[in-house]
Each structure stands twice: as C-alpha cells, then as structure tokens.
Amino acid sequence: MLRFESYARPETPEEAYELLRSDRLATVVGGMMWLRLADRTVPLGIDLSRCGLDRIEETPDAFVIGAMVTLGQLERHDALTRATAGVLREAVSGIVGTQFRNLATVGGSVYSRMGFSDVICALLALDTEVELVGAGRMPLIPFVERGAGRDVLTHVIVRKHPYRAAFASVRPAATDFSALNAAAGLWRGSWHVAVGARPQKAQALTGGERLPLREGFSPSELDAVLDATSDLAFGSDLRGSEEWRRAVAPELVRRALDAAQAKEA
Ligand SMILES: Cc1cc2nc3c(=O)[nH]c(=O)nc-3n(C[C@H](O)[C@H](O)[C@H](O)COP(=O)(O)OP(=O)(O)OC[C@H]3O[C@@H](n4cnc5c(N)ncnc54)[C@H](O)[C@@H]3O)c2cc1C
User: Fold this and answer.
1) Which residue, 143, 159, 175, sits at the end of a domain?
2) What pTM was computed for the model?
3) What does the pLDDT look like over 182-195, one tens digit per residue?
4) What is the Å distance from ligand 1's center to 76 Cα?
5) Ligand 1, from 15, 33, 36, 177: best to mutate by most atoms within 8 Å of Cβ?
C-alpha cells in the first residue's frame, strides 16, 4: 500500500514545484492509478488537483491540455478529436475501461514515459510540446528521449495542423497493455511515425530530422521506412518476444499509415 506522511494540495504549479524541491522524496500525485500500485511510504504527496490544470483550452494555434486532464476528458473532447483526426481518441479508448480513464491523467501518462504508453506514442505523431515548471517548454521528442529533472509537468500542447493521423496497436487481451503500438501523423507535408511498446518507450521514426517520409511517398520510400522499423531496438517481455515485435512492427506501421491516409484531409 502507498502511504503519505504528509499531503499537500497547492493552489499553483509553482507552489507545487517549490514543495517538490523541498524534499527529494516528495512525490507529485496525478490520478494515482500507477502510484497506488507501489508499496512504500512517501514523506510528502503533492496533489495537483487544485492547480487549475484540469482543462483543455483551444487557442488559435493549439490545444493546451492541462496535466490533470483525464484520459476520459481527452477521449470525449470532440474539437480535439476532430483537430487530430481522431488519433488521440483511438489511442486512449483501448486503455483499461471508462472508470479507469476517468482517473488516469495526461500528465501522469506523459511524465512517467512508460514504454507501453499508447498516449505518448500517439502524441509523438503530432506536433506536440510539453510545459514544465522548472525545465520550461520543449518539444515532446527530447522530453520522451531524455526526460526532465524533478519538475512539475503543467501542460501538453498539441499544435494545430490539418492532420491526417491514426493509431494502431496489438494487445494480448482487450484491457491489457499494448504489446506493440504505432502511430502515424501527416503534418507540414511529412509523415511522423512513432513505434512504442517495443517494450521500450515509443520512438519517433520519421519526420523532422529523422528519416524522411513525404506526403505522397513512393512504394520504395515506404519500404525504406518499414525496413528502418524492423531495425529499431526491440526486446522481449511477457507480452511478446523480440522476434515477434521485429516481425510485426512494420505491418503495424503500414496499418497506421493506411488508416491515416484513408481519412479525409
Ligand atoms: C492497470 C493499469 C493499466 C494501464 N494500461 C495502460 C494502457 O493500456 N495504455 C496506456 O497508455 N497506459 C496505461 N496505463 C497507464 C495509465 O494510463 C497512466 O499513464 C498511469 O496510470 C499514470 O497516470 P496517473 O494519472 O495515474 O499518474 P500517477 O500514478 O498519479 O503518477 C505517475 C507518475 O507520474 C508522476 N506525475 C504525475 N503527474 C505529474 C505531473 N503533472 N508532473 C510531474 N510528475 C507527475 C508521479 O509522481 C508518478 O511518478 C495503465 C496503468 C495501470 C495502473
């Protein structure tokens, strides 16, 4: 069981950050769905529920998602779903069940950078940034690759583009973790493909400074990306062997691309 020696409910993210800095064992509390599985005593729990981070705000050029927004809110937000070609809803709707998604948060999902995360995989296919008290604002890719210090994640920012995007995953059973997942998003004329649950954390494969995959890619350009997919680092765990993941990942990428292409621009 998880126990807290003391518990704070700060009014601002900055106050939460000061509390986090005050004790190296202090722990930020999101939806607590993951944290509660631990069996330990934490000297200070920092609950972000009063920090005003539970809203999705639409600005002229982005959707600004508060860290305490639940996966359920994300799933049900029609404007965000339309703007992202449904990729976030697709990624989230398979996670456990409705009650679970109404508690687990976007902040907890992104900050913990779990290998199996469907949320991170889908966000990597979009033009996404994160905002932290401490490290400030940065693109999602370096945050996922390197993490941040002991900071408070306040927002996930999804920039607006006329996206085409889709998510694909393989789960051993309906409510289990993904054994492998992939997402593809087209924006600024380039496909951004991510592959996760390898079982290591999701990796951006194409787009930006990575392997190019332009909008109207040729069969040979697609083959180069599928070859690069099978060259990614994969591992074995309870949900799949390294060989299985290496064999299936290119097909999953192809499915995500096909599904995204089939959507209207
Ligand atoms: C049984 C189970 C099944 C799951 N299945 C899936 C799945 O299929 N697909 C999937 O993508 N995910 C899955 N998850 C993960 C889940 O969706 C959440 O990502 C996870 O529970 C963390 O979110 P939370 O709000 O519960 O965070 P918490 O448990 O509260 O926190 C998790 C970690 O993040 C830190 N943290 C939380 N919020 C912040 C913040 N704003 N700033 C800084 N640090 C923060 C905490 O200190 C802690 O270290 C599963 C989790 C469980 C327990």
Assistant:
1) 159
2) 0.98
3) 999 999 999 999 99
4) 19
5) 33
